[in-house]
Structure formats: structure tokens, C-alpha cells
Amino acid sequence: QVPLVESGGGSVQDGDSLRLSCAASGSGRILSSSIVAWFRQAPGLEREFVALIRARGGSSIYADSVKGRFTISRDATGRTFYLHMGTLKPDDTAVYYCAVGSEYTTDLRAYRSWGQGTQVTVAS
Asked: How does pLDDT run across 32-47, given as a tens digit for each residue?
């Protein structure tokens, strides 16, 4: 398992943008063979998939609810991963979690490493 830390959450208005970051903390390292994903959990709801990307870069998958508005990416070193969230809506309000796994899947059960989460609140 890799200790992960997210940052970048906050309170914004409907239509605003935010960028979340995820990186391994301490001496941890995200292997290039890993899959990095973002999930979110709104109050009273189950944790749901948002987006994923191969740690080495390349292919990605998005939930239908965020397709065209959110972009998952990585920096040139492969150490920091981002979720660029555009045209935010109140329905995007949730705690956003970064996760790392070894399977190219949207199933959260496959992910063994999780961050502590960062709150995103979108006001109407």
C-alpha cells in the first residue's frame, strides 16, 4: 500500500473550477504500473467512481456524470496526479478520494491505497 495525500478541495460557486492533487506521502511511491483513480462520496450516498488514469499516462476513464467537465492527468514525473474539475455543479459536492490500485477498473474494491479525502462544496 502507498500512503496518499490529496489537496485542493474547497468551497466554490456553481460553474467554478477546482484542481485536486494526489501524491504519495513520506517515502511512498506510486509505481508506473499502477492505476490512479478518483472517487467521491456525498453525504448519505455510496462512494462512486469519478475518473482513472494509468500512472504511466495514456488511457483514462470517466464517469458519465463528469465526462466533458473533469480531466484526470499526471505531472511529468508521474509523482503527482490531478483532477481538474470544470463547470462544477452542486451535485458535485462530496469528499473526493484518491486511490491507487493495480487493475484497470472502476470498481473501488480493487483499490488498496486510499487518501484521507478532500472536501469539495459547490454552492448554487
From this structure: 999 999 999 999 999 9
